[in-house]
Protein 1
Amino acid sequence: MTDKSATLTFDNKQVELPILSGSEGPDVIDIRKLYSQGNVFTYDPGFTSTAACDSAITYIDGDAGELWHRGYPIDQLAEKSHFLEMCYLLLYGDLPDAAQLEHFETTVTRHTMIHEQMHMFFRGFRRDAHPMATMVGVVGAMSAFYHDSTDISDPRQREIASFRLIAKMPTIAAMAYKYSIGQPFVYPANSLSYAANFLRMCFAVPAEDYVVNPVLERAMDRIFMLHADHEQNASTSTVRLASSSGANPFACIAAGIACLWGPAHGGANQAALEMLREIGTVENIPDYIEQTKDKTSGKRLMGFGHRVYKNFDPRAKVMKQSADEVLELLGIHNNPTLQVAKELERIALEDEYFISKKLYPNVDFYSGIILEAMGFPTSMFTPIFAVARTVGWISQWQEMISDPQMKIGRPRQLYTGPGRRDYVDVERR
Ligand code: CMC
């Protein structure tokens, strides 16, 4: 809070609006009383200048390329922490001590299996269903299986729903994948880390032993960490809006997954790799880049640009390093898709159009490269993002529900439709 205020003058009226300060970042003009005092709304489709809530979870400084979770910079977390520790940090606000961490890991890990009857639910999908389609349906269906954790007014039930979602999401994503390729489901192995268990559930088959490569396990864990939360992005805002009506957590997270699927958001990693394949060879890059500058082409350089980061995406920096490690380990040097990716990155970073519009490779540009090298099909890229982002959605949901000032989200509009008119019977139209 500050004692600063802004005065809005219009139509011979003056409205005094308080200015609020957070711990970091720009101040906000508090317009909550604007309508009652001035009879006007504000207009900001796309929320480019609007803070929709206050939050103590994640801070982004887009100009400086900074991303902090609960104050800790993402590069330090990515180097020193691991995904489940980060989940604790996001959910509870501080890093755990050793006993808290062990207790948390054991608790989450004990929820990795899904109700056996849910297996039948999977079988209702077409065998070639996109894993995201399956995930939206199955996660929404969790509210039909876990009734004892849907009372959002009970903090203990909220906590159990949080554990269930974090623990079961990799199982559901891996099952959606296995179903889409016609292989048997692989049950979780609780002796493995979160990342190793996920790799095993995706790649193991009953006919052979599967040993998780520690470099790939670390790279997977980093992908989860780098996607864990990103303050009020589209899918998180969707989860908050859905939850603001009091809907149960499983339904709200299903809404978040649906929003994440779009190519401007979590679907960008799939779109980026498909674009690299479409370009095909290094010689085709200049022509493709020209098309992305032409607004009538409908093409964008996927994996480039960000609403908030206008300098660089700090997650992309760590992801690029991880990509190099994975490609080195797997001995992949001549893969044509990866050659196109490297050359595209080089050319775009020197191109005046991309420089002047501050368009840099984002996290999805490199995560697609790593996931492709690990053997994931493009259809699994966004489900993996959903697995990682679940903890962010849940932490933001918990924060919102615990706030006594929570209100249903209900935006207003600038109406541009017809004025009042009278109904005309069909024979007279
Ligand atoms: N390729 C070509 N031109 C672009 C691109 C791009 N990837 N991104 C933005 N522009 C241009 C855009 O045409 C516009 O030009 P002008 O000012 O001449 O009209 C200008 O840059 C600003 O674009 P905008 O659409 O107003 O910017 P935004 O902040 O609304 O969009 C974005 C951000 C991420 C949706 C956009 O950059 C984009 O579509 N990128 C490609 C998709 C992508 O990689 N998304 C993943 C984002 S990171 C992960 C996540 O958050 O899910």
Note: Residues 155-181 form the longest helix (27 residues).
Protein 2
Amino acid sequence: MSSTLTAPRTTPRTTPSLDTPLTPNPDLLAWVDECARLTRPDRVVWCDGTEEERARLTEYAVTKGVLIKLNQEKLPGCYLHRSHPNDVARVEKCTFVCTTTRDEAGPNNNWMAPDEAYRKLGALLEGSMAGRTMYVVPYVMGPPGSPLAKIGVEITDSVYVALNMGIMTRMGNVALGMLRASSRFNRGLHCTLDLDPERRFICHFPQDNTIWSVGSGYGGNALLGKKCLALRIGSWLGRQEGWMAEHMMIMGVESPRGETTYVAAAFPSACGKTNFAMLIPPEHFRGWHVWTVGDDICWMRPGPDGRLWAINPENGYFGVAPGTNFATNPTAMRTMARDTLYTNVGLTPDGDVWWEGKDGPVPETLVDWQGRPWTPASKEKAAHPNSRFTAPMTNNPYLSPRANDPRGVPISAIVFGGRRSDTVPLVVQAFHWTHGVFLGATLGSETTAAATGQVGVVRRDPMAMLPFCGYDMGLYFGHWLDMAHCIASPPKIFQVNWFRKGADGRYLWPGYCDNMRVLKWIVDRAHGRAGARETCLGWVPRQSDFDLEGSGVTLEDVDEAQRIDLPAWQRELEDQEAFFTKHAATMPKEIVLLRQFLIAQMERERQRHPEA
Ligand code: SAT
Ligand code: MN
């Protein structure tokens, strides 16, 4: 194992040597002290977020074998980390929402009583940092000064986590400066323990604005600002405070006339959100530009002008490496060319990185993600399917000039997408806000490697928030419906599916840069400019509303990608039943009725076309 995470512990010391705290904030000092007394680290290090500190921690991580220095000529400032092979993705079964009552967490979450969770994890945390360093990582989610920004502090025993947080958030002094003497900060306590999956728990205490995570050092389990704070705790706070925390990327779509339209889009993990957020329009769309505001998370609140305004709470990208190349996402390739941490990708003999689907010839030999020799004849993959790059958003050549704007950007269109090889059409526009909420609520997607478990099975993933909604999902839909009353000019809502296949198993839609063709229709519809045809699923583009020039896509394929397959829809509606039953207690009536309405319409269609 290349990591110190499993190194044997030395005898616990009772008085850790304390680095000078960087703040006089009494509540923060008291909490750090409390955590240190519980976990008994040898040292406490306060992270200030400076370049000098980053260099020092990086060098320390290299000497400890936590990071491997890559070829600095090819990849300046880039390092490789190999996680424990049992710790490579989010683990939903170990993730808990610890509200006072089980009902608050809802059937969509694993629940543990707060007392029990504090007791259980407290026992695991006791003395857990003996012989180790405790990093105190203060961070801001959102552009500093934004009314939507939130402060968190993550305490962690992992230098890899501290370094990742330094890329993914605005970290260090900037957070302490914003926090000043306030006690309003998220308290995140993270300890890798010995990475035993049996002792892996990610517990959220929304009523205490607290997160305790033990037993994992990976991604969303350990970088507590991301899914834990920005989505699970964020969604809870959003409902209390009248805003929305969503699993969405945000992009600005600039037309040749210089008009920029902001679009937010929700897709489940590893379904191409980052690629979509970094889309480069095809040749034919001269004068169009897509600017990335964010690639994963979106916080939105109604503005004084009646529109919905959004920020990206993050400061970097934690993107999936496999499949990323100069054809699928040239912007990501450029973004991760420097100052990037790679996790679980292959290592070539000249200190470069490699993953399945990267440009160029397959290396004749390399070291795989588990540190073993690999050749193209090897049965296993060189890079783990959920291997990642952590890159600063400022590396993105198409970073939106508004990405750091504390006011955020006004959203004109919201898109829900999933990975579906059948049934769901390429693009549909909702009839109205409530119908859009219904489209989001009934979203399904084939599972991916981003979470442990079976890959490729359809599961309901409403708003792509199933693993991230920090409270009862039915109440969450109700919050969406309530928000309409605070937004005089709501965004138009759409559903897309880039992944539909034909009878021959071929993708019907090329995806990637050609998604611009769908995006243009979405933007035009959001401004009330493009035509459409009404179907029972929503408004869809007519052939003449769609610009296919230069795509090589046939009209037949597009028609097939848009086809309403009645037997498939019958199965789809039946498949939704279990989800609606599970959430019956709180599911808004409007959503139930829209589903009944669709079932009735589909039945009539089937009577009209009994041969279908
Ligand atoms: O591991 S993360 O949750 O950060 C990535 C993802 O699943 O989207
Ligand atoms: Mn995500």
Note: Residues 1-16 have pLDDT under 50 and may be disordered.
